[in-house]
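ingest -> fold -> write
write: protein_1
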Amino acid sequence: MPRILVLNGPNINVLGRRNPAIYGTLTLDEINRLISEQAQALGMDVAFFQSNHEGALIDRIQESWGNIDGIVINPGALTHYGYSLKDALIDAVVPVIEVHLGNIHAREEWRRHSVVADIARGQIAGFGWRSYTSAIEIMAGIIEEESAP
């Protein structure tokens, strides 16, 4: 069964209270439940981790080496300056999909640049919680295609 690590960076833990016009009204636990349902329907195992600290996210990625088949990540503000996080994602040697609840390209100029985008298979932004479930579905397809003989 493919194993996916879903990572969330700074401030994602306060979803539901944080600017609902941009981030929606669902909490992170509610979003994780939707992701779990999607992953189960696709025959995938999913693990979740959130931290407001870049080093903790890096530690979790490194602890997962060899035990995961893909990473779905919402780096939060680390999107724009998390070069250590980017290096850890590269070193994991698994497909990475970057997700954002809001459309980072329609916001302030400084939010439009992602240091993760060029190493990710793709970026899904602006669809709220559906950004995550879409990423899970796409990741399932990537893993299936790349593991086929």
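write: protein_2
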Amino acid sequence: MVLNVLIVLASFLAMEFMAWFTHKFIMHGSMWVFHKDHHDHSNTSFFEKNDFFFLIFAIPSWLGIMFGAMNGFDFKFYIGIGILCYGLAYFLVHDVVIHQRFKWFSKSNNWYVKGIKRAHKIHHKHLNKDHSENFGMLIVPLHYFKDSPIVHSNVQVNS
């Protein structure tokens, strides 16, 4: 049981690296055509071409869960669960909290939420495929939290 939990956690953490790598070298590289509308907001539909990347991460998760279950719930199952958990976290943080595609947590005053929103906003200042920052989606450099109450308790952050 402990090993299975560790596999899920390790897979989740590895996905932060995969998200950074995929974003920097694939989304801002050879597959920019799918990611571009996420930056330039040229698409007026609820869905973006960028949503295609959901499949890039959903398919390995599904395959891991399916083949792991077919093999007696071996390590592949728990890797698939870790990828799935990261996908859910990515959806909640990126699409719900940051981009407000769903208005579920629109008034958060949390220091972490403010830091990741600040980092993402800086990233979106670039409308072309160059200048992709070197940070992930859940883990960003500390300087994005510089005005956060957790770092400076007497400074109020403006969104």
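write: annotation protein_2
Helices lie at 2-30, 32-40, 53-70, 75-98, 111-123.
The two ends are 42 Å apart (CA to CA).
pipeline exit 0
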